[in-house]
């Protein structure tokens, strides 16, 4: 594994995990009033484009990390609809 691949995996891990604390909080509290639906949608769009770019470049770290981020953010979006008042 090259140095660049290790850096890519590390960067992807940190950025993909960035929304996990928010998701955990929403699951625990069932409260989504403080979430910005616009931010979540923009983020989903951006990381989805990164996944597509990763496929175009055949870059597994980009694909995997951003696909995980899409999953986390889509889950957050679903909970936004489920728990909104």
- Percent range for β-strand residues: under 5%
User: What would the CATH topology be?
Assistant: Monooxygenase
Class from helix and strand fractions: mainly alpha
Q: What is the rounded distance between the termini?
A: 48 Å
Net shape: elongated
Q: Overview of this structure, please?
A:
This protein is mainly α. The chain has a single domain, classed as Monooxygenase. Helix content is about 80%, strand content about 0%. The chain contains 4 helices and no strands. The longest helix is centred in the C-terminal third of the chain and has 24 residues, at about 60-85. It starts with a helix and ends with a helix.
Descriptive keywords:
PQ-loop_rpt, single chain, Monooxygenase, 0% strand, 85 residues, SemiSWEET, membrane
SSE topology sketch:
Layout lengths: L2 H15 L2 H10 L7 H21 L2 H24 L2
Helix pairs in contact: 1-4, 2-4, 3-4
Brief write-up:
GO terms for molecular function: sugar transmembrane transporter activity. With 85 residues, the protein is mainly α.
């Amino acid at each position: 594994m090259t140095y660049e691949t290790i850096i890519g995996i590390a960067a992807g891990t940190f950025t993909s995990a960035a929304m996990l604390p928010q998701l955990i909080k929403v699951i625990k509290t069932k409260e989504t009033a403080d979430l910005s639906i616009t931010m979540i949608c923009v983020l989903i769009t951006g990381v989805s484009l990164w996944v597509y770019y990763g496929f175009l470049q055949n870059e597994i770290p980009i694909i995997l990390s951003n696909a995980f981020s899409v999953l986390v953010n889509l889950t957050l979006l679903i909970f936004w609809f489920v728990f909104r008042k």
